[in-house]
Design goal:
Elements (H helix, E strand, L loop, with lengths): L14 E3 L4 E2 L6 H9 L20 E2 L4 E3 L7 H6 L1 H19 L11 E5 L2 E4 L2 E4 L5 E3 L4 E4 L3 H7 L7 H20 L1 H4 L10 H20 L16 H13 L2 H9 L12 H14 L15
Parallel strand pairs: 1-5, 5-9
Antiparallel strand pairs: 1-4, 2-3, 6-7, 8-9
Helix pairs in contact: 3-5, 5-7, 5-8, 7-10, 8-10
Length: about 300
């Protein structure tokens, strides 16, 4: 997805944390860290395991935290630099959900969006590029080591283009919307399987990502310029390649050579693509994955 060169970035939505930064408010239990580290890519949600989620956790900086997009001014910058692309995506997502949340009856707040290098501590455990991008409910924040995007291509087989990268962010933003909706608190995510609660949560986040993409070319900056140029079919295929690459069946096939639907936690490649497209074509109000029968997922 190509940014409009003349669109303006305000900055302030994305921060970068240096090595050693941590979250205050007590030590994170070893069990929570283990659960976090073994979770599959994207959409890690531990709100049912780790108590919290009220958004009051205070960030204690033991490493420097700075504005990651301080030198990002325009869409041209976002097309050239990954930090600026993350900032541009965040500003567009924030603008979209500020408006769209009203249709869902949500009192919207902006999530934190923290880039880090190597590893960092969160209320959900220790994060690294290997664990993948994730949303931490107690912190109400998205964490991302952009080195993961190299893995998205080399390990997961995605095309790894700009929209594939921003799909990842939009999916995690979708988890923040679910946190505000109460979907995390109200859904039993302890089980696994192709129609389990955990899969329904992940597929809804994919649908929310698609809904943002469907609207992104109309979202405007503070000066009335659209953030993005019209989205092409090739760019949609880019996002779909990412959704497919992180399907449970795709990951299992690559890692073990076999697929076990009973152990699914995020959904198959086909499911993830289908729900992304549903959101893209029909909007966020069509993303209720909880009321449909398992056979329709």
């Amino acid at each position: 997805m190509t940014f409009n060169d003349d669109s303006q970035l305000k900055g302030g939505k994305v921060t970068r944390r240096g090595r050693g930064a941590a979250i205050g408010g007590g030590a994170v239990g070893v069990g929570a860290i283990v659960v976090f580290l073994i979770a599959q890519f994207t959409g890690v949600d531990l709100s049912g395991i780790i108590d919290g989620g009220n958004g009051t956790t205070e960030i204690q900086q033991r490493g420097e935290t700075v504005d990651a997009a301080a030198e990002c001014r325009t869409g041209r910058d976002a097309n050239l630099k990954i930090e600026c692309r993350m900032e541009g995506a965040a500003e567009s997502l924030d603008g979209y959900w500020t408006s769209e949340s009203r249709k869902l009856g949500i009192a919207y707040t902006t999530p934190g969006f923290i880039l880090f290098d190597g590893s960092t501590s969160t209320s959900c455990g220790q994060a690294s590029a290997a664990t993948g991008p994730f949303y931490c409910p107690p912190d109400r924040a998205i964490y991302l080591d952009t080195a993961f995007y190299d893995d998205l291509q080399s390990k997961y087989g995605s095309s790894g283009g700009p929209l594939a990268q921003m799909y990842v962010v939009a999916h995690e933003w979708g988890h923040h919307i679910q946190q505000l909706q109460g979907a995390f608190a109200n859904t039993d995510r302890s089980g696994t399987g192709a129609s389990s609660g955990s899969v329904r949560v992940e597929l809804q986040a994919d649908c929310y990502a698609g809904a943002w993409v469907g609207d992104a070319a109309t979202t405007k900056d503070a000066n009335g310029e659209t953030f993005f140029e019209p989205i092409t079919r090739a760019e949609i295929e880019d996002a779909l390649s990412a959704a497919s690459a992180v399907g449970d069946d795709s990951i299992q096939e690559r890692s073990s050579g076999r697929v076990d639907p009973d152990s699914f936690t995020h959904g198959s490649s086909e499911q993830r693509q289908n729900w992304f497209l549903r959101g893209y074509q029909r909007g966020a109000t069509a993303c209720d994955t909880f009321s449909v029968p398992g056979s329709s997922l």
